[in-house]
Amino acid sequence: MEARSALVEVVERRLDFLERLSEGALRKHELVDELGHSRSTVNRAIDELEAAGLVAGETDGYRTTLSGRLLAQSYRRFLTVAADVDAASDALAPLGPEVALSPATLRDADTYRAAAPDPYRPLERIDAALARADGVAAALPALPYPRLLDRFRRAADAGERVDLAVTDSTYRHGRERYADTLGALAAGDRAAVSVAEGVDVGCLVADETALLVVFDTDGGVHAVVESADPEAVAWARDRVRALRESGRDVTDELAAIREARTARDGETGAVGGAGSAGGSGERSGNGAHRGADADAGGFDADARGFDAFGAPPRAGGAPPDSLSAQGFVALDDALLDRDADPTGPLRATPSLAEVDAGFALDRTAVRDGSRRSVADGLIEGLARGDDHALVGPAGSGKSTVCRLVGVRWHRSGRGSVLYRAGDEGEPFSATDRLRERAVAAEGHVLVVVEDVVDDDAADAVGVARELADRDDVSFLFDAREERYDDPDSLPLDPSDLEYRGRIESRRMPRLDEREAERLAAHVADCTGASPVADPGALLDAVRRPDGDRPGELLCLVHRLVRAGGLLDGDSPAGGDSPAGGDSPAGGDPLAGGERGKEPEETDETGLEASVSRAVRDLTDRPPPTADVAVLVNLLNVAGVDDVRELAHALVDGETEPEAVRRALDRLSGTVLVPTPTDPGRTVHREWSVLFFERLLEREPEPVVARRVGRAATRVLELADDPARRSRIRRALGGDAPAMDRVERDPEAWAAGAVRAVYGVGRRYPRLAELYGRVRYSWIDLPDACPSDLRGRPPEWVVRMYVDAGDLDGATDALDAWRPTEEAGEAERQRGYGDVARRRGEYDAARERYDRAAALFSAAGDRRGLAAAVRGRAQAAHFAGDYEAAYEAGSRAYALAAAVGDPIGVAKSLMDIGNALDALDGTDAVIDHYRIAGGLFGAYDDTHGEANVRTNLAVARFRRGELTAAKREAQRALDGYRTVGDEHREAVVLLNLGAIAEQRGEVDEAATRAREARAIADRIGSGLYRAFAVSHLGSAAQLAGDLDRAERCLRDALATFEDLDADSRRAMVAETLAEVELQRGDLDAAERWIDRTESLLDEHASRRRAATADRNRGVLALERGDLDRAAAALDSGVERARAGGFTAVEARALADRGRVAVERGDAETAVDRLTAALEFGRRIECVRAVVPAAEALAALLASHPEPGELDEEALGSVLEGSPTDPAAYRDLADRWRVDADGLTADPAAGESECGSEGD
């Protein structure tokens, strides 16, 4: 050993001599010149090498011996291997010592790590090698990226040899997600696939290039080692051959799966393959891409598409947490060049291929005086590096515009497009990967995320915020307006919420007549039929009077299809329609209306008619058609894929698989709209939402809830029941990707499934009745459901009913809810408070909010505590306890500020401003509103801004600034209609009516009150209906119709009494006192005045107190008690002036003038009446102007010598003839109310103010 050690040292030290002398003999002086060493070094080296027998002296010099040459070569090889291994050490780091790997594979190799600054370089090297390969051999423990299999398939299709060996887990993973691609690969005679053991490192040979693919412990690609050395290529090729030959050949098995799928597709009318990795299938329903995978909790997922994010299964077989699994796809030509159905966008959200083919309408809108493409406008802003959000109601075409933007961006060559469709893939959480990919991709990268307001996608906003400073990455978000406009409901942390305010928001334009014409022409082009004659009339038919509504675009499409006779069995396009058979809709969900009727002959749109007919048809169909229809529609609204497979969850002892298949066939053309490339395609979710609305109208709520609960439970139970999953597999011939997902992680699947099922009602609160009232909910959670979710359904159901305005339903749900934790009980008590406040039960609301606050405080939830205290402030305000409202609002403000909740701060400032407005009406009120408005504006909170504008309108109105008040109110009305808040819409309509009434525009005031009453009836709010009816009574009183006024006011009063709303009762009592004063029934008037004061007690606001003082003063005036009248009116003026209530002040000033007239003090009377007249005209108060002008006319008529009066004061109000009584009578006549608008109301009489419908 020592000799060998000495020999090695000599070889190491004198390697350069050995290698040089192996080439030929050299003398010592020649070595000095050749190697550059000194003579003494050469002498010592030759002596050492001679002594070791490694060189020998000859006549022509020294030459290496055989031993010397072999040792030199071996040692050089060792150094080369050492250098190769050292260079690749980082790349090989994740591999264990037992991995079978030859140094030959590292010979002259280049290594590529998945790390900064180019983390995706390894995948690019693999793809580049495969793209140009004529033949491929590979052994893989995992799939580095989904498109890899497509590369293999294309090589085999081109006649090249493909040999593939994979691990068992990778085979099962690939068979589930990419069965079509693997089946197509195996179907030819040029490929062989095996499942082998010992595949511990990826080994791939493409022509004369060998690549080692090293995976890290998390399953991602760690590095690629690439070599073109012949030894490396030969070793890799031999390694793949040995693994494949030693493994189990599955080529025929994969080919059989493909044949089975083809046969099944033939039975259902499909003529093409379904989606696969890079294959021809593409999601065309609610997502951009269809796939078989699902999230670890994933009820719906994307299986393919992103060639940089695939990864092998983790331990236990769970899928990787990758961008691909989380729904992202990278747009490329192959994706966009797939088969596209021209009629597909008429049924559902268009696929990317359909958008690229021009089958989706390019929406336009008027902007800056010209009509422009909405998509192009977004592209311009995105190209500047600005992030954008496209906001609009469901069914308005947001997703289509976003897909058009993505397609045009890709086709323009600007840069890469990373796209996540709504309801695709696992919940998005791979923020680091998305950020890295966006930074590393080529060109100006566009990231598009649909439905960003959903919990599953909201983390993308954080990535956009982190990349906001880069001008080569832009984000486009699609968001439903009802959630986007309510920041409190968004699942964003404060920093992301703040960034939301910096995102450029664009609103989906409402359809106009020109757009309807374009859409009609587009539908005709896509179907080959003639365009309808009058698309504008069809637009009017689907238009709602109260603003843009969800599904309006979809309704118009259905109208166009029905009016044009498109896609029915008799149309030219009918033969190509995949919706055949005996579908309830007559072959297509778009074929609405009754046969033989024109559009104007029915109130239903085509959409509504087709849904109604589908619901009616269920009663005539044999079981299990109704259950299957309910389940498929529920899954469609939930955004779930594999609905056909999951429908087999209904198979049991009484229901055979064949019965389920027949039921699914009957649904073809309604909720199911299969295409050749996507036999499981579903209609737009708005169709299914309307399906449930019609079903709830047709059948009793408990019956529907029981059916929904039974169907949902059957699906959820799959997480607990392996035997049922096996039965479904057998029924489907073994190919059941959804069952594979359940088995992979039942608990995670159950969590996602539960969230998806209840997400239907959370997204569409009007479907709350599908879930029962908690007390009789028929949805049973599986045992596999995580414990942290088991208590959530009652909370979700309660919020559904509250948000839907169904206060009885909310109460029933709250009564049945039994939370086990303090935080849950706190939310329950806050729910009770919300219900009580909306009902006008303010004392009960305050009590509930106080309980909630105590529980939130005990649980350490300061954000919840702030919300509860804010609720108490609002309840106190509505109850007329303005000081308590101010105190609670101030506390809520402090809490919200402490936890960094800017929206909470803004809402608290609003509550404080409201209380101040009621207490003193100082300029501080406007300041509070302005600050709150600034915060709402900064966070793009449309709803909050509308609230601010409402309160500003009230403040401006009180100050007599009617033009400004009306402007703010109209803007608030637009905001509420945008977000769909009908409760507050009704309030603003009443405010606009009050403005009109102060101006004497009785017809306008009554119209606004009736609109508010209609909304109140629609939403079932007795409180708002009472407000509206009291406004109708006030308008009638102003118009002089005192009988009608009394009827309306008494009706409103009865409702307020039922609600125990003292301040509202006092408001009505004040007006009833005025009615009796006008009638001259002074005793009755006094009773109403006394009742007003008793109701107000110590909680009287300055406005109520000022009005009460004025009424008592007028009563005293009519009775001739001038001193008491003067005192009461002086008090009224003082209180009104202090609070800034200009209308009350102007009226009291006019009444004070009348007191002076009665006293015979003409000079004082003129001063007071001219002041009232001038003030009343400035604030446009007809109730002050008319009596002041009439009093001045009478006063002047009783003074034949006008010189005795103050002509200067008179001249300030009426130039030209300031002392002419006729001029003042003319002035009063001009301002006098015309009651025609009130009396022309067809609802006039008892029904006008009656309580029908309450």
Question: How are the SSEs ordered, and which strands pair?
Answer:
Blueprint: H1 2-13, H2 15-23, H3 28-35, H4 39-51, E1 55-58, E2 61-64, H5 66-92, E3 110-113, H6 121-131, E4 136-140, H7 147-157, E5 162-166, H8 168-177, H9 179-187, E6 191-195, E7 202-206, E8 209-215, E9 221-227, H10 230-246, E10 248-249, H11 251-267, E11 328-330, H12 333-336, H13 352-356, E12 364-367, E13 370-373, H14 374-383, E14 388-392, H15 398-412, E15 417-420, H16 431-440, E16 445-449, H17 459-466, E17 473-480, H18 481-484, H19 494-500, E18 504-507, H20 513-527, H21 535-542, H22 552-564, H23 606-618, H24 625-638, H25 643-647, H26 657-666, H27 685-698, H28 701-716, H29 722-731, H30 737-744, H31 746-763, H32 787-790, H33 792-804, H34 807-816, H35 822-839, H36 842-859, H37 862-878, H38 882-898, H39 902-919, H40 923-938, H41 942-958, H42 962-979, H43 982-998, H44 1002-1019, H45 1022-1039, H46 1042-1058, H47 1062-1079, H48 1082-1096, H49 1102-1119, H50 1122-1139, H51 1142-1159, H52 1162-1178, H53 1182-1197, H54 1207-1211, H55 1221-1231, H56 1236-1239, H57 1246-1249
Helix pairs in contact: 2-5, 3-4, 7-9, 9-11, 14-15, 16-17, 20-21, 20-22, 21-22, 23-27, 24-26, 24-27, 24-28, 24-31, 30-31, 33-34, 33-35, 34-35, 35-36, 35-37, 36-37, 37-38, 37-39, 38-39, 39-40, 39-41, 40-41, 41-42, 41-43, 42-43, 43-44, 43-45, 44-45, 45-46, 45-47, 46-47, 47-48, 47-49, 48-49, 49-50, ...
What does this structure look like?
By secondary structure, the protein is an alpha/beta fold. Among the domains are: 2-75, Winged helix-like DNA-binding domain superfamily/Winged helix DNA-binding domain (Arc Repressor Mutant, subunit A); 93-267, Endonuclease Chain A (Endonuclease, Chain A, 2-Layer Sandwich), CATH 3.30.870.10; 315-507, Rossmann fold (3-Layer(aba) Sandwich), CATH 3.40.50; 513-547 and 551-609, no CATH class. The chain contains 57 helices and 18 strands. Strands 3-9-8-7-4-5-6-10 form an eight-stranded mixed sheet, sandwiched between helices. Strands 11-15-16-17-14-18 form a six-stranded mixed sheet. A hairpin with a 5-residue loop joins strand 8 (209-215) and strand 9. Helix 52 (1162-1178) runs antiparallel to helix 53 (1182-1197). The radius of gyration is 40 Å and the shape is elongated.
